[in-house]
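Troubleshooting log. The previous run stalled partway through. Resubmitting the same two chains, unchanged.
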Amino acid sequence: GENVEQHPSTLSVQEGDSAVIKCTYSDSASNYFPWYKQELGKRPQLIIDIRSNVGEKKDQRIAVTLNKTAKHFSLHITETQPEDSAVYFCAASGWGNNRLAFGKGNQVVVIP
Amino acid sequence: DVKVTQSSRYLVKRTGEKVFLECVQDMDHENMFWYRQDPGLGLRLIYFSYDVKMKEKGDIPEGYSVSREKKERFSLILESASTNQTSMYLCASSFGGATYEQYFGPGTRLTVT
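Second attempt completed without errors. Output:
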């Protein structure tokens, strides 16, 4: 089945700098790649997603890029703010059509 | 607004007890999911259901069962709780297909002593 890996596990950045989280996936048939954000003590929420027919998608300070050849996709956060501190999960839709394969999550810490 | 609710935020049970965790969604979603979240292990899928009375095993189904008698309700059952099932349990729901957003509940922190 699909296997999704995230690197690095923890990322510390100065406020105002950019943060990049990279995920790799194993199933070349995967075609949907969402990112979920989980703030401390709260539930995960979808922040952005990308489909395999698109190479990049932006929404204000966040963007996701997809490299299908290399089977990796990345989350980019620009001008980081303290409220960006959270755990970020990437995922991919692999075998079947009803479930996602999640990565183990990245802790992002924005230092004021 | 989509609302996914879980029956308890915190639960303490004894080893060997039968434990029921309930999840209710109000958006007429076809799919419902139970995840377990542990530090460093991310979100691991226990079971999911794509229709009433239908279920499929996820990655870690051992020691768990599920029930979906009504579309809006999905129950996770620990037949005989063990200490290694101490964890955060998250329910989620979505429209049919993996390409739809999953909406998560607030989670149940289960402690088995």
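Takeaways: Chain A has a mean pLDDT of 93. Residues 66 and 73 of chain A are 4 Å apart (CA to CA).
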